[in-house]
Amino acid sequence: MLYFMGSSAHLPTGFLSDGSMTGVAIAAVIVLALEGNGVLGKQGPLTTVAGVITSGFVLTAVLYGVLALL
After folding, report:
1. Taking a C-beta distance cutoff of 8 angstroms, is the pair 19, 67 a contact?
2. Gap between the Cα atoms of 1 and 5, Å rounded
3. How many angstroms separate the CA atoms of 31 and 25, rounded?
4. Is residue 14 left, alpha or beta, with left meaning phi > 0 and alpha meaning psi from -120 to 50?
5. What is the dihedral angle through the alpha carbons of 65, 37, 52, 54, rounded to the nearest 10 degrees?
6. How far is Cα 8 from Cα 33, in angstroms, rounded to an integer?
7. pLDDT tens per residue across span 13-61
8. By the 8 A CB rule, do 67 and 15 touch?
9. How far apart are CA 27 and CA 62, in angstroms?
10. Which one of 22, 37, 53, 57 is most buried, counting C-beta atoms within 10 A?
């Protein structure tokens, strides 16, 4: 979340404002799926601090890719 808050003001292209609604919808589905897994599923790598940090970086990269490419 912090990455996208900073990128909205500091990225020169402003890809979040130029992005299509398809990319935003896909990002929302990914976030909702992760939230659903957190509530109903098993935690998997999120049971350790290192797993949470790694998962956060991976999620940031995936969301950046989805929003930048769509």
Report:
1. yes
2. 6
3. 10
4. left
5. -30
6. 24
7. 555 555 567 877 888 899 899 888 888 878 777 788 998 889 889 988 8
8. yes
9. 9
10. 37
The angle, 0 to 180 degrees and rounded to 10, between the axes of the packed helices 21-40 and 49-69 is 160
DSSP 3-57: HHHHHHHH-SS-HHHH--HHHHHHHHHHHHHHHHHHHHS--GGGGSHHHHHHHHH
Residue showing tokens 């098993």: 42
* pLDDT (0 to 100) of residue 11: 62
Q: How many other CB atoms are there within 10 angstroms of residue 8's CB atom? A: 12
Other CB atoms within a 10 A radius of the CB of residue 9 amount to 7
Q: What is the pTM of this model?
A: 0.66
